[in-house]
């Protein structure tokens, strides 16, 4: 039996691991940025060998102190460590390491570069070409290791070396590329609190507060904002918390000067920014309409309404009419003031040697406007000239595009609705209990949930939302966890059970001890995981990326050739003159066709086709208890042709119980269980817990069994086989038959018969050997999950084959497989054997999914094309997986595969919408139907089609919000 640190279904914490895991022989402190004459310092710990005496310590310290940039060094001969603080701008860790080695002391290992992560809000992106430009600009910046830019989210996640660059330089790189950027979060904000300070009127007071906080236990870094009287504190949640920091500030005051601190919650930038953009587009559209409607009336309505038509045709000077002048006056603010954003966008795009939608709009509207200006000027200089202006085309184009962008932003905001609902699940306040040494409640206080600290006792009344993750210490109730896990049935909670923040207490009053707060809660981890997934690109996005590189240049070339083709054929007389509309000439007709081609083409829709669908799907999956870790997993899942299931904890409930025991030696029953439970107490495997629980029950019946479990020394885990350890003076081995054979422990005929008999009953037999001899055996049974058979049947109906892979014996594995309907079985295999089998299947061209829950499954989960971790499994398994099934319900395997298929179908449909508008709209705009049907696409209508293309793609993605689980739908039909 292998160790399997099982994570309870309602825990869900630690869904993500630190980005950088230091090697075992080097301990790295997180770099500390201090304001010391604008110098950035870093503290690093080296493991140094051959430190034998005080002279060695003096030699190392003397050599390192001579280096320019080293601020301090401390060497511990007992721990064999050197702790060095240095200025990153003057010296690096590698130089320090070389100096120590040159002094004759080996440094074991070298720390990898520190990696920091920050999130940026990117402004000004309109298409995939823009997001690629930002990504390339970031990747070229010094110190940036990785950058991912999401068009739909309008965000970037940047991994960088803080010793080489900082957030300000990264933002400058984005701005140099022609886009706006602002910081929206960084990984060092994981345990950070913002406080508003009252009573501190001068820098001296703030310095006192800063000094007091920096000397507090658990405080890592303090930032002071003198202008706004705000303090930002980074801290260790194991040692302190927001309430303790507030008390520290208040204690720093002295009579008559007193300080008061309160929690300051910065406004939600994402939501605030989205509303700001919506309001901007709405206001610009309204302002544009204020001028465009009169232009439209003067151009298309009033000329046909007497006496206005005659008045508009009145000549002011030579051939310049009132109508033409009014159209010019009202159109100009739309073109140059309201439409200024298109000029700026075009300039920035062309400056970085690319082109986007702004270029197309600017070209189209400028062509219409300046040709109209030419008509107006010529009218003022001629006594007989008559020409058709296109001022209404320019104004209406800009107005309709702004309307389309406004509707698009509103629709895009709804793609994150599921995620937004998750973030709002945590309540604003909670009841904090103060207890005395005897556990009696002496005070109950209502506080902000932001002030809850680890180990606080929180009172949860019936109907209240649980604010943080914790453990029930008093009371009993049922908790509705559907908003987190998707599990519709309330879960019973009693003392020692875990609860998840954001879930609802149904009927009883319970007291909960906080174990995970802030960003460490399961809810926060889920939100972080889904946000990261929404930012990641799906492979299918590459199609849009490739097209976007050539899209705008091809459209501009097509528009020019369209104008040229119609103009030349008109001048030569290839087409009849009656094709030309009244009040137009051949040049104007050709110009309208060219402008229509420019503005009907929309690169934005192509860029939104994939990310909007991924955003909606990952958010919808999270609300259903299926966490998908990115577009890659989402895309691959629908291609799965084989699903490999682990047995224990996956197909079975994962809570085995001992059902039979047999002794094969003179050892007593009490001694047998005492030895077995002593070794198994160190393991978290489900069978190990069954042994410990069984021994605990016998403790009350057998006087020979000690009250407390003995401690096993030299404990070893043998993955997929068993465990061993030394209990007292004897060596105890507990495991399967294969483990005993590997240990050269002989198995007698009686033991063989016992194993065979119980394996036929789908029971797992575990052997216990003491000092190399079989002392006894016991059989455990782990009931199959009730939904397992139905899920396997449904998966097979989807044309997907199923395999069960387990380290258990063949007889038990075959019996379980037969019960659930799996025909292919792999038994008596170790974790690497599972991974090898998956690779063998992949070599045959199959796309393989692995479903598992334990440490044993992590190699196979990583090897599979799609790894699915049961939510009740270990954190290691969850980290190795691409998809996490939070409910531990096998039905969600079907949900994940089906949701993937629906999402890919929606993405392809989005591409059809996007490409269809362009492939059909461009020829129609170019006039391909005009010779046969007389149908042409005026520029203002072409602009409306362009705006509608992006909107239709976003709305198509939003339809994924109505997704229903296939098994649930089937059940409702059969009822």
TrEMBL record:
Q: What family is this?
A: Belongs to the cation transport ATPase (P-type) (TC 3.A.3) family. Type IB subfamily.
Q: Name one Pfam family in it.
A: E1-E2_ATPase
Tell me where in or outside the cell this protein is found: Membrane
Entry EC number(s): 7.2.2.8
Question: What Gene3D superfamilies does this protein's entry cite?
Answer: 3.30.70.100, Calcium-transporting ATPase, cytoplasmic domain N, Calcium-transporting ATPase, cytoplasmic transduction domain A, HAD superfamily/HAD-like
> What is this organism's lineage?
Eukaryota, Viridiplantae, Streptophyta, Embryophyta, Tracheophyta
Domain HMA, chain residue ranges per copy:
42-108, 116-182, 191-257
Q: Membrane spanning segments where?
A: 285-304, 316-338, 359-377, 389-407, 550-569, 589-610, 911-933, 939-960
Please identify the protein, giving its name as recorded. Answer: P-type Cu(+) transporter
